[in-house]
Design a protein that fits this description.
single chain; 106 residues; elongated
Length: 106
């Protein structure tokens, strides 16, 4: 039984690292492209942002380029962690099914 748990743990750990790393790499390339566009659009070191309020009115705002980059990095880290956990769960399930089909789990 310890071998089964160890195998599933190793596979889940590998899934976590692989999923998080690949997600972070993809997101970092995307963030670089977004930052290049933001630097082009920046006026006086600020990126124009805006959106809608809950009551439907439009608002205009601005954000420093450094703050915008920090926000993108934080988003990439959180997204990578979530994708890593999902990948780890899927990998552990597949490892469990594989061990079960091979007759290791009774």
């Amino acid at each position: 039984m310890a071998g089964i748990g160890k195998c599933m743990g190793v596979m889940a750990g590998a899934g976590l690292l692989g999923g998080a790393a690949s997600s972070y790499l993809i997101q970092s390339h995307f963030n670089k492209a977004v930052m290049e566009g933001a630097k082009i659009q920046a006026k006086d070191g600020y990126v124009p942002i805006g959106g809608r309020t809950k009551d439907g009115k439009l608002w205009d705002g601005k954000m420093k380029i450094e703050d915008y980059q920090k926000m993108l990095q934080k988003k990439a880290a959180v997204t990578s962690l979530i994708n890593g956990l999902i990948t780890a769960t899927g990998t552990a399930i597949i490892a469990g099914f594989t061990l079960m089909l091979r007759g290791k789990v009774k």
